[in-house]
Amino acid sequence: MGVIRKILNWYAKLSPGRGKISPPYEHVVQIGDPTLRKGSEPVPVDTIKDSEVQTLIKMLEHVLHKYGSVGMSAPQIGVNKRIFVMRCTSKQISNVSPAIAKMRGMSVIPLTVFVNPKLKVIDYTKITHAEGCESVRSFSADVARYKKVEITGYNEDGEKIQQIYVDWPARIAQHEMDHLDGKLYTDIMDRKTLCCTSWEEVNLSKGRVAIPFVPT
């Protein structure tokens, strides 16, 4: 493994974007990065409007839009702070068939920022759907999540916020909360359902396909 890592690092040095950078990143870190396995620290409420926290929030929103995601947590851009953002647009819903959208219980979620969020399960019924993660790029697996949850915390202005989510929005919220506790969906997935979402392209291209770690 040491030899493989050295080779990979050598290739990375050839990248035109090579250079030392500090978080918050404009890219999403991948499984294996220690940041994803650390419990995140709460943000002092009286610092939410400080420039450092606001910069982190703006970067989360930027990366969320850049990747076309429905949720993004601070650990995913290299910062172990208890902050995440989530949204689900009508365009994102239209990208799947009406039947799948209905089965998942998808609904529009305005862009929402949660600082120091806390989760309370309201309906303990568990629903299983395929789930992916930008930090486990190009893979998905079936994951059981609670049907209905309540998220409380603070917004980007330091104001208290409370939201109740059902079905797909509840899944997004639980997924992001897991990130803040150093957990990934791979910890609770049905292992037999894990698959590469590009497996068909791999076959069609006879293996000559690259999985990008940033949007192309």
Overall 3D shape: globular
Q: Please give the largest β-sheet.
A: 6 strands, antiparallel
Q: Kindly report the average pLDDT value.
A: 93
From the alpha carbons, calculate the radius of gyration and give it in angstroms: 18 Å
Specify the helix fraction band. Answer: 25-40%
Number of strands: 6
Distance between the termini: 29 Å
Task: Characterize the structure shown.
This is Peptide deformylase. GO terms for molecular function: metal ion binding; peptide deformylase activity. It catalyses: N-terminal N-formyl-L-methionyl-[peptide] + H2O = N-terminal L-methionyl-[peptide] + formate. 28% of the residues lie in helices and 27% in strands. It has 216 residues and is an alpha+beta fold. The chain starts with a helix and ends in a 12-residue tail after the last helix.
